[in-house]
């Protein structure tokens, strides 16, 4: 040491300290005669360099720290599961206590004889249909396009005043299931369908919802398309105008006598029966990413229309968050697995219909915060909670032209930062699970790494280098070590090292076509799902494990992968949620069983069991389907299509037993006569086609066609004796026909006492009161009467299902109104036992 220069002395002082530490750390391994040698080349122990020993120690330390991190994460997951389970138990206990507590709560017998009681949920106002449409044919939908089945008219649209109401504070509940939506201050539902006022209703504060319904009443209209209906007691007729067309609706003779001395008919009160949201059929996976999550409680969380569904598969139950008033487009789950954020598109309501984010509690379904009213354009398409800090912040991306990204302190709530991302669509965003303030977004022609510091968002674009840049980066996730994993439209899986924006590993040709979903399992294996409908498992080094599975072709695979509570990869798959993926109009109830059929423009027909909520069978046709009806025997099902072709299927074996074509335009409606001997079809070519049928609806022979409508046929009904028909058209006509010869009955008053087997026509004496002031004649799309002739349900263009007393001939009649659909309600039907009401949601593809 004395021969070393003074400049070298500090270095070797440091080495002496290191040498002193080495025997302590390795004393159990070194022999008693270990020799330590100091030299300018460094400290050596028994010929080994101290650099190697320290490197070994560091490696072991990293391994131990990594193991501890995994244990801590595992314990954190267990704590989250325990917390969620405890919250779920408390919710169930509260539900049981609530069901026992109110002595004055009304009880309802379900079809199985079980007694159901009511529970309470927050209620708020509905939203008005946007003003200034392009014509009578302009209908609201998720994409804003016109509703099929309505011909445009040149008369300008005016904003339509609608029904106001006073909250009814009764705690009543009945068994039919309705929709749920409309919230202006945090509305929610705990399995009870919310009643909400018709668009334009006065009060917008929150009130009791679900069992505390709001009754509807029409208000006066200025410049409306519907003049106030007038009751003429001398003639026993209601005179009303729809878009300038006069309508005379003749009352039955017995009712004329009852009203002979009445000067003015008072509005009808709403019925005592009410609806609760029981089940939402369908799942929006066709145009959204990150749309399916699992909770530790065993519930799946997804959305359809404006309803967020919490679906417990094992128990066969659903709960529903109904705070949104239009299409839900994205969802994010907080790290605590209890708090959930959902974003919606622009809706009807001027105040609450703007795109916004709702943060809510998945245990009691209460709204915690509403973010971004007035900040977003068009829709909120992506959401993500921060993860490294325990979920203090929320990132949101909207669908404006510049696809703005914003970061929120959601508890205050307060926007911390905002900037534009790209002119191209953004498909997904995620916070980094380990690095605070790090966000990744992906989409068309983009993969962007964001960092938020000092209230500013800065970005770095992903660099693909030698790899072909994909047109779309479709999905992303993170490995347990913090590496980013992406799937793209080229079918490649790319790995991006933590902290960088360059590719560290590539798996090319992982799938044939785009990769829609990626999921990292608890064992660090990866599961990918692609356009080729395959699920493939990869190990931690991104090699195939050999485990693969194929998804059935009838399943929408746009966003299927999410790690469940078990976190494992099971090759046994069976469909849990099925539904339509295109516009849905066709809805028919089985005449003798608690089943119903739906058909849509996706060419699929589904037969559903209303008690188990499962698909009995499904079948794909060659044509987009629009309407359907069962033969009275229940043995066959007729389906009308957009091409003018109509099919008849065996209702049990789903085989096609007959195919016919009438014209080359859409079959709008179809109904069998009560005895099943005849079938009538209303076409978009303005004609009604009448057929005689035999062999339980398997053989057909045309009787003729009814000519007289000046526009397309929208609805039709048979008389109870099967001799007469009545029909509505697109220009608001009500015409009557003799079925045997297809001749029009010019004197409608002669049929005033005819008993009608169904109530599908929306323009009749018994339905005059369902039309709100200001309606343009196309706002009410469908109606149906229950078998007891005491209730009348309607579906309208405001996304609402309304429940009236029957008959409903009084102007300004009051009703219970329910949301849940985000598009026009295209159809409504009561089940044969009146226990449930079904509604089909047009472009939202939902059945509620």
TrEMBL record:
UniProt-listed SMART domains: WD40
Residues covered by the EML-like second beta-propeller domain: 584-848
GO biological-process terms attached to the record: microtubule cytoskeleton organization
Leader sequence residues: none
Composition bias type Polar residues, residue spans: 1-11, 212-227
Annotated segments matching region Disordered: 1-33, 126-229
GO cellular component, one term: microtubule
Repeat region (WD), residues: 577-618, 706-737
Composition-biased stretches (Low complexity): 126-147, 164-199
Residue ranges of domain EML-like first beta-propeller in the record: 318-556
Keyword Cell division: no
Gene3D superfamilies associated with the record: YVTN repeat-like/Quinoprotein amine dehydrogenase (2.130.10.10)
GO molecular function: microtubule binding
Pfam families per UniProt: Beta-prop_EML, Beta-prop_EML_2, HELP
Keywords: Cytoplasm, Cytoskeleton, Microtubule, Repeat, WD repeat
PROSITE patterns for the chain: WD_REPEATS_2
Keyword Repeat recorded: yes
Chief location: cytoplasm
Compartment(s) where it occurs, according to its Swiss-Prot or TrEMBL record: Cytoplasm, Cytoskeleton
Family: Belongs to the WD repeat EMAP family.
PANTHER family (alphabetical): ECHINODERM MICROTUBULE-ASSOCIATED PROTEIN-LIKE 2 (PTHR13720:SF50), WD-40 REPEAT PROTEIN (PTHR13720)
The name this protein goes by in its record: WD_REPEATS_REGION domain-containing protein
Native source organism of the sequence: Macrostomum lignano
